[in-house]
Structures are given as structure tokens and as C-alpha cells.
Design goal:
Blueprint: H1 5-21, H2 26-40, H3 46-51, H4 64-76, H5 80-88, H6 93-96, H7 104-114, H8 119-128, H9 138-154, E1 159-160, H10 161-176, E2 181-186, H11 188-191, E3 196-197, E4 200-206, H12 212-218, E5 222-228, E6 232-237, E7 242-248, H13 253-261, H14 264-276, E8 280-282, E9 285-288, E10 291-294, H15 298-304, H16 320-325, E11 340-341, H17 355-364, E12 369-372, H18 387-403, E13 408-411, E14 414-416, H19 427-430, E15 437-439, H20 448-460, E16 466-467, H21 485-495, E17 498-502, H22 512-521, E18 525-528, H23 540-549, H24 563-570
Parallel strand pairs: 4-7, 11-12, 12-13, 14-15, 15-16, 16-17, 17-18
Antiparallel strand pairs: 1-3, 2-4, 5-6, 6-7, 8-9, 9-10
The protein binds 2'-deoxyguanosine-5'-triphosphate (DGT) and calcium ion (2 copies).
One calcium ion (CA) binds next to loops.
Length: 573
Amino acid sequence: MPVRNSEIADIFEKLADLLEIEESNPFRVRAYRNAAQSIRGHGKAMADLLEQGADLSELPDIGEDLAEKIQTIVTTGELPLLNEVESRTPAALSDMMRIEGLGPKRVKTLYKTLDIKSIDDLKRAARSGKIREIPGFGKKTEDRIRTRVEGFTSHEQRVKLCVAEQIAEPLVDYLRKVKGVKDIVIAGSFRRRKETVGDLDILIAAARDSIVMDRFVEFGEVVEVISKGRTRARVRLRCGMSVDVRVVPAVSFGAALVYFTGSKQHNIAIRKMGVRRNLKINEYGVFRDKKRVAGKSEKSVYASVGLPVIVPELRENRGELQAARKNRLPHLITMEDIRGDLHCHTRATDGRDTPRRMAEAAAERGYEYLSINDHSKRVAVANGLDRKRLLKQIKEIDKLNEKLDGIELLKSVELDILQDGSLDLPDSVIKELDFTVCAVHYGFNLSRRKQTDRVLRAMDNPYFNILAHPTGRLINEREPYPINLEAIMKAAKERGCFLELNAHPDRLDLTDDACLLAKEIQVRIAVSTDAHSASDLRYMRCGIDQARRGWLEKTDIINTLSLSKLKELFARR
Ligand code: DGT
Ligand code: CA
Ligand code: CA
């Protein structure tokens, strides 16, 4: 099976981590990290590019040496250099660097002084109070490590939706080619577009004597066959993810689709509605006195209980059945509604492309506007913009806009909200911008009350427009910082500010539940990608998936508006 881009990126990232712990040359470390980011964000699979004879050294951040290493990984599945480094420095130290607050220096100290080599070692040491005794750590640091590390493993098994997509695609392509397969759908949480999925549930319409099950367990990525029958099988893949496959006859396909798409709560509610109509609803069909009355299509199943089809994203038993009954289902936002992106970075700070390249990529997507939001100086990036550099960028964008056709670049910034609630640049320069995106980037361990006050105070600044990634969570890596989102949403609504739904697949911040809350409070949302390269603009789809799960409609989202409407809103008058 071809090696996925994410696997190549993981190898380079691990190598960078371990070299950094070994205090290797920082430029070398950076080169591997940049390569990892570039490969991960690339729309096409490296394996495919190589097969087509492409020269990988022409890709951004990939030189000849790295191109050769990618080739090695694609052909052999591993990188000898990483194996060599791992023989000196335990591989799991790299996992520890994913823990918030643990950099290479600390990981190294923990390893050298307490022989901590894995997350489990770290958890034990934090619980036993040994870490606080290391010079430079202390009780506070130990507490913080303990909270992070407990959270780290508890949800590790769930896979981010965008990663699950990369895993599922080759498998589905493979199954589709098997003789006798008529239809194939990935159901479960994947179809409901949940931000993470536990396993894949693949539904196949095929004749009963189809060989598809035999083919399925022969798939190259399968490392364990957990169970296998004529109509159902479950396997584990090399990446650790499990896959359920069901083969159903065409007459049952709709019923099976409803059942395996779930959610379980939605299914149970539908089945109860059936019971009230003397119908038995299961994965095989809809039955009245043992007679099949529906089940070939999803539509027929929903119709049997008097409902229109409900889109998978809404099937969580969060009021969608009541809404359907009253004909009040929301008209969910779609990609076509989006007219621009209000958060991206360029080379000026930690992005990879120029404003011009970003603008061209946005125009290719059919956008009317794109804003440039490089970091202000306080943030973790070393080269954040100060007043002078921001003013210079503003001039550059003005010039660029004169040349650009069909798309306008908006002048913006991603401002740090400082601990006292002030913004990181003076109003005298902020007022030169079209609008601001503001965010909390440090001081995550304030109390809920203090963190909330900090953001509320920031919103008092009349130039505050959009609160970026409002909870700071990183899926599977960092918990949200404690904050009263409801109070923030209400204040934003009152002041004419907006919240971002950060569409980056590592963030998806707001959650679906938070989107529902925003809708209830009627504060409007910007769905923005936080792109760090032109290809990252494609993450908009991940944000739209999340917004749809949160019941958001076109009118709830500001980057569906024309530029002139948007500018009016940003004036906060
Ligand atoms: P996941 O895999 O944890 O991300 O979530 P799902 O929703 O994909 O759950 P999964 O894989 O356990 O099962 C797939 C679907 O099968 C689920 O969404 C609904 C249906 N299902 C599973 N177990 C039950 C059950 O006990 N009762 C009913 N009514 N449906 C079930
Ligand atoms: Ca599942
Ligand atoms: Ca399953």
C-alpha cells in the first residue's frame, strides 16, 4: 500500500524532535520540521508524485537530500537515519514533546535525571511527585504536566476526521473494484462528519455470494482480522484504526445506511417513532407484521415515520427529529456560500507563501476576498510584526490590490490578547487595518474567571473584531483553556464582535456544541482556515463540516457576505 503523506511527515517530525533533544544543529532540525509541514499540507500523495516521475526536490522546503529520503520512505516504509537516531535516543521521547509545556530541554532533563522514556513513565513520575524535585521544575510545573499527561492518553485512540479520510480513501478505492460490489458508503461518525472518529464503518451493497469479504481481509494494510463472516467483518489496520465492513443486499441498503450512520441515539429515537406506528425498524428494513414495507433507500425509511431525510451531520438526537417533524430543519451552510477567508498567514511571520501567492490561491477557489493576518510581536513566533513592519505590510497589500483582479486582500493581523486584556499593538496602527483577529496565545492556565475577563476586556477595544480559535484546544493534544464561552458569546453579540470557527483540522475550534450555543445566542461566526500556506486554504471544508454539525446556516456566518457588507460590520457602529 502506498505510504501516506502523514506517515512521511510523522517520520520527519519525529526525527526533528529527537535531533532537537540531542541538541543537534538547529538549522537541520528546522529543515526536517519545515519538510514535515510541507509534506503534510501537500494536496497530492508523495508516493503518487514519485510514481508519475515528479522531481520532489522542486517542492517547497524539499531539497535533493530530503527528496532522496522521501523516496527511501516511500519504497521501504522507513528511514535508516531515524532508526540510527532512535538507537541513541528513545523514540517515545518524541511523544513527550507533544505534551504542552515540555520542550526538548525538559524532555532531555526528565530522561537524564529520572529515566523517563515514555508518556506512561511521565504519568507515573508526575503522580508520585518526583518531578517537582528536579531543579527548574517545581510543584506548579509538575501539576501542569500531570493534568496534561492525564488528558493526553485518554482520547488518543480517536482519529482526526481528515486523517481518517486519508486512511479510508485507498481502502474504498480497492473495495470498489471488487467484482459484484454495487454500492459502497463509509457510514458511522465519518459520514456524520464528526471531528474525530473511533473506527470506520463501511457499508457495501453486493450480492450474498460476493467475494468482497475475502478481498477485504486481504487488503495490504490489514494487520489483524478480528472477525470475519459472510456479511460482516472487522479488522485492524497498520495505523491502529479498526474497520467494520457489512455487506447487505440492495433491498436493505437504505435501512442499513440509516442504522450504521447513527448516531445510536438518533437510531433509537427513530425506532421509537416506528414503534408508535406499529413498525419494526432495524438494519434490514422497515417491517409491519413481518412484511417489509421500506428499506431500499434512506428516504423510504424516513418516510415510513413521516419525515424527510435528515442530513447525516444532524443525526445526533439534538432536536433534529422534532425540527424535521415541524418542517423546520436548518438550511445548512455549504462550501458554495463561502466568499472568502478571514484568517491566513504569510512568510512575513510563520506562513510559507507570499501575499500574492495566497491571493492567487484564494482567487482560484473563487473567493472574492482574503485577509492577511500575520502574527503580532508578542506571540510564540520569533518574528512577529511590530508596528513598523505591519505598516510596511499594509503598504505592500495596498500596492498588490491595485494589481489584483477579481479578489481583494484585506489588511489584518492576528493580535495577541495580553494577560491584562489589552491588545499587542497600539490603536494608532490597528486603525489602519480593515479589521482585526485577536487571540489568546499564552497564559492558558489562568482561572476560568480571569481568562474570561481577559477576553471580555479585549473586546472593549473598539478595534476588536474576531476572536480567533476561542478555546485554544488542539485536538488530541491540548485541552481547551477554561473559559466561559457563553459569557463571551453574549458580550460579542452585544458589542458587534464575532467568533471564529477555526477550520484547521488540528483545531476545529469551536466545537459543534459551541456552534449550537452561538446559534442560540445569535452571535455570528467567521469560518476561517488559519492557513499557513496556499494549500491550507482547502481546510475550509473541514470548518464547513463542523459548522454544519453545529446547525449553522448561511446567515450565521459572516464570510458569506459581500465585502462591502463585511466592512460595514467591522466598523462596529
Ligand atoms: P465512533 O466510531 O465512535 O466514532 O462512532 P460511530 O457513531 O461510528 O459508532 P460505531 O462505530 O460504534 O457504530 C456505528 C453505528 O452503528 C452507530 O453510529 C450507530 C449504529 N449502532 C452501533 N451500536 C448500536 C446500538 O447498540 N444500537 C443502535 N440502535 N445503533 C447502533
Ligand atoms: Ca465508527
Ligand atoms: Ca464501528
